[in-house]
Structures are given as C-alpha cells and as structure tokens.
Amino acid sequence: MIEAYGGYVLKYIGDAILAFFTVNIIDDPYLPCVNAINCARSMIKVVQRGINPILDQNGYPEMGVRIGIDFGDQNAVLQYAWDIIHLSDDNKHKHKQIMKMPYYDIVGYTINVAVKMTAFAMPNRFVIGQMVYDTLDEIQKSAFELSNVNTDVWNYINSKTGSIYRVYSSIT
C-alpha cells in the first residue's frame, strides 16, 4: 500500500513499519504530504474493514494501528552494512556468485520526531507534525485538530519559530 501511494518501505521494526516518501524541499511538498496522509487513511481502513473482521470472525482480538507523519530536511539515509549471499549454480558449485545486499537506515531529527509523535496517536488514527500541517490547504487542515501534548513528555522545538513543535491528530 505504501508503494501504491509513492512511498518506500525502509524496514520493519517489530510490529512497526518505517516508510518514507521523498520530498524535494525545493519543490512543493504538498503532494508527497497528501500522499502520505491518504496512505495512512487507507492503511487504517484496510485494518478496520479487512483485517479486523477476519480476526473477529476467528476469535482473535482486533488490531489497532497508530501512524506518525512528518517531514523535514534534517535527515540522512545511510548504508551501514552489507549482507553477503553466496550463490552457486547446479553444476557442482563450479561458478560461485556473490550477491551483496546493502542495509540502509534513516537517521536525523525529523525521523526521530515522527517516531516519537506516533505515541500520541489514538488507536486507528494518525498524527502529523507541524511541517506537514503547514503545507496543507484549508480543506485538508480541517481533518485535523491540534493535540494538547504535555511539554514534560514532548519538548521538540520548531526550528523556524523556536516554540514547541506542534502535533495534529486526525479527526476521522
């Protein structure tokens, strides 16, 4: 689903998925932000209308998802290792081939903020950061409300304003 909306799955972390949508800061970030938001909405619908009825029908507890979305330019994609796979043909291993598969990760302030703010999402809802919210038009903004986040647990600063970085929760 992430790929269908123009995103990329970077990795799985336990029961979480770390995905990204490329945004060229020079260009207008509106479309990648809206794509990420629409992807979140679709993922929640699939869980609620597709997966949970099957779980319920088979006596299992329902799943709930929480999603955090943010963007910024303070990230870096880095390669930190290689997985080396030895392949051989069927002719008694005469020709050995080696395939190297890189491991990538995203590090930086923005990804850290996005991961941390996900905890503020209610089950089957998502949150967006102020940078995403500021790119939206008024119709898109009307689907969100400002989250009242305790500064004892949330102390991320908006680099543009110097004030606490705002988090917005999806209403629907």
Describe this structure in words.
The protein has 172 residues and is an alpha+beta fold. The protein has one domain (3-170): Nucleotide cyclase, GGDEF domain (Alpha-Beta Plaits, 2-Layer Sandwich). The protein is built from four helices and eight strands. A four-stranded mixed beta sheet has the order 3-6-8-7, with helices on both faces. Strands 1-2 form a two-stranded antiparallel sheet. Strands 4-5 form a two-stranded antiparallel sheet.
List the helices and strands and how they pair.
Blueprint: E1 8-13, E2 16-20, H1 30-57, E3 66-69, E4 75-88, E5 96-108, H2 109-117, E6 125-129, H3 130-135, H4 138-141, E7 144-146, E8 167-170
Parallel strand pairs: 3-6
Antiparallel strand pairs: 1-2, 4-5, 6-8, 7-8
Radius of gyration: 20 Å
Spatial ordering of strands, largest sheet = 3-6-8-7
User: What can be said about the biggest beta sheet?
Assistant: 4 strands, mixed
Q: Which parts are unreliable, with pLDDT below 50 for 5 consecutive residues or more?
A: none
In the CATH scheme, the class would be Alpha Beta
The run of helices and strands is EEHEEEHEHHEE
- Superfamily (CATH H level) name: Nucleotide cyclase, GGDEF domain
Can you count the helices? 4
- Mean pLDDT over all positions: 86
Termini Cα gap: 19 Å
Structural class: alpha+beta
Which overall shape is indicated by the principal axes computed on the Cα atoms?
globular
The CATH architecture designation is 2-Layer Sandwich
What percentage of amino acids are in beta strands?
A: 25-35%
